[in-house]
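pinned: reference chain
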Amino acid sequence: METVLPPRDEGVWLAGGRLPISESPPLEKLLRAVERVAAIRAGIADGAKVATMPPVEIVPYIWTRDRALICGRVTTLHRGNRAFFGVQLPAPTALCTDRAAVRALLVHEFAHWFYIATRALNGSEAGPQGSGTLDLRNEGLTESDTQINAHDWFGEEDARGFIQHGDAITSVISKQAIGLEAYFYVVSPRLGDALGAIEISEDVKAHIRRLRGEPAR
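pinned: its structure tokens
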């Protein structure tokens, strides 16, 4: 069963996908999850050093790789004719009602997004040789390499509680996944597209420039 839904929030939306059973109640729960994730995203923004957070797409599947649950990722999102970098959350993460766990996971993924935004903007503004193209695939970067300093970007509580991959708090999300196999297909997520724009808001651009010591433009 394929379902495509209009966005409930400009920054958080539910992607189309297939469900193994009738749309109710899983679809209704995911729609509520969109609203919950949007509220958590807004809460992160309220305490952050920038007002704009990355876009979030909720995907109606359970993600695993090598039998391990995947809770979220930064990848290229597609809306209409646009392709741009954002955050994707699978069904177990979106449906998790432990707001602290989902918030910590979002902050972690947002940190990756802000790293990419910083590299892209710095590269494009690096003078005559600058380029708007960013390709990190051959740099040998680790998971922790592709993150910003959380204290430079987020509120004190979010920065202090910053998590890394496999942190114990994400076990709450793993427990949420138990039993969901009856409602959502279990898949290994396809590799994200290598191409896509990163749409950087003016407040995020200004903050990146401040962090590299430039006066406001």
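why pinned: The longest helix spans residues 99-124. The chain has a mean pLDDT of 85.
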